[in-house]
């Protein structure tokens, strides 16, 4: 086994993780400052964007929160009309949580702001040749998660 190649791969893995982490942190700060959402509230948004609807108990499991704390988080999000709770069609004793139109609009606004931020950065900081390189690299990075 060639340890020089392993070390280069490990360095590349570190650089990718670091870059993705820094971009992700920037996005989280954008979302937090946009609607003054807590980490817990942002977690609820992330789950609801991917699942469309879920139960409070599933949110607790997914986000590793107590049911009491989740209840407080959901109450706050419902108060500002970002989520709604409704009875499950399968079991009326259970409740499902979904994003409201206001919540979906907030998510879309945040996504649009992120896209705009990235578009501006790309336009301002990179040459046409560098943009081609980034495009090629993106195709490779996507393979990491496929």
Written account of the structure:
With 146 residues, the protein is mostly helical. The chain has a single domain (35-145), classed as Arc Repressor Mutant, subunit A. It is 75% helix and 8% strand. It is built from 6 helices and 3 strands, in the order H-H-E-H-H-E-E-H-H. It has helices at residues 3-35, 39-51, 56-63, 67-79, 101-125, 128-145; strands spanning 53-54, 83-87, 95-99. The chain has a 3-stranded antiparallel β-sheet. A hairpin with a 7-residue loop joins strand 2 (83-87) and strand 3 (95-99). Helix 1 (3-35) crosses helix 5 and helix 3 crosses helix 4. It is elongated.
Summarize the structure.
This protein has 146 residues and is mainly alpha-helical. The protein is built from 6 helices and 3 strands.
Gyration radius over CA: 20 Å
Order of helices and strands: HHEHHEEHH
Q: Can you identify the CATH class?
A: Mainly Alpha
Structural class: mainly alpha
* Superfamily (CATH H level) name: Winged helix-like DNA-binding domain superfamily/Winged helix DNA-binding domain
How many β-strand stretches? 3
Separation of the first and last Cα atoms:
26 Å
**Count of DSSP helices?**
6
Strand content: 5-15%
Profile the largest sheet.
3 strands, antiparallel
Query: Which blocks of ≥5 consecutive residues have pLDDT under 50?
Result: none
Mean pLDDT: 88
Helical amount among residues, as a percent range? over 70%
CATH topology category name: Arc Repressor Mutant, subunit A
Write the CATH architecture name. Answer: Orthogonal Bundle
């Amino acid at each position: 086994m060639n340890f020089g190649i392993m070390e280069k791969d490990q360095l590349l893995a570190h650089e990718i993780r670091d870059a993705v982490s820094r971009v992700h942190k920037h996005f989280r700060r954008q979302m937090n400052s946009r609607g003054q959402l807590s980490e817990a509230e942002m977690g609820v948004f992330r789950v609801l964007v991917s699942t469309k609807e879920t139960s409070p108990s599933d949110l607790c499991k997914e986000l590793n929160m107590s049911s009491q704390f989740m209840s407080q988080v959901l109450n706050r999000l419902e108060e500002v009309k970002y989520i709604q709770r409704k009875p499950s069609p399968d079991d009326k004793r259970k409740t499902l949580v979904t994003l409201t139109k206001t919540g979906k609009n907030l998510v879309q606004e945040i996504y649009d702001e992120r896209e705009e931020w990235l578009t501006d950065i790309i336009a301002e900081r990179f040459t046409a040749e560098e943009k081609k390189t980034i495009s090629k690299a993106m195709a490779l990075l996507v393979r990491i998660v496929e």
